[in-house]
Design a protein that fits this description.
globular
């Protein structure tokens, strides 16, 4: 599996899982998804908002790379979150609309990223203004790992609220091969 195809698999997994978690959250009343459950970002909605915030921030950073700028231009033209705990969306419906758009953009982005571009470096500043330069493929691996980390938290919060989101393993999307 090439670096590009690996990231494309992770992008599809991201979309699949976000759809599952948003559908599961939609089974709950508003009070249940907004209740502070003691998680790092408080509620189910707070954690789902953090995922959208984190993805938006990272996609804006990736858009600074010359090999990524054109495909990611749409995210740079939207309002930008100011803090990691910002509630970009007050309700699940608005978040879901944005999430679907964002996940499709992530799929298009990973499909367009060549292995050559992925092998290059990206210079960026974090939310505190600290400059850094790192390998783009490694940063995208972090990007997808961050999503998985917080979706695991959402899965736990959903279980605590009595909802089973079902299979969450990446293995479900890895194609079976002969031999």
């Amino acid at each position: 599996m090439t670096p590009s195809s690996h990231l494309q698999l992770l992008a599809h997994y991201n979309q699949w899982m976000n759809r599952k978690l948003l559908a599961s959250a939609a089974e709950l009343p508003v009070e249940a998804i907004t209740a502070n459950r003691g998680a790092f970002f408080g509620s189910i909605l707070g954690t789902l908002n953090h995922l959208a915030v984190g993805d938006t921030i990272w996609l804006n950073r990736f858009a600074q790379h010359p090999g990524c700028a054109a495909i990611l231009r749409p995210v740079t033209e939207r309002p930008q979150p100011k803090a990691l705990d910002e509630a970009m969306f007050a309700d699940l419906g608005s978040l879901q609309t944005y999430r679907e758009w964002l996940d499709e953009l992530i799929i298009q982005f990973t499909a367009s990223a060549s292995d050559e571009v992925l092998a290059s470096n990206l210079s960026y500043a974090n939310t505190k203004g600290v400059r850094s330069s790192r390998n783009l493929h490694a940063l995208l691996t972090h990007f997808f790992n961050h999503q998985t980390h917080h979706r695991g938290q959402v899965t736990t919060l959903l279980f605590q609220a009595g909802i089973d989101p079902g299979t969450t393993d990446l293995l479900a999307l890895i194609p079976q091969v002969d031999g």
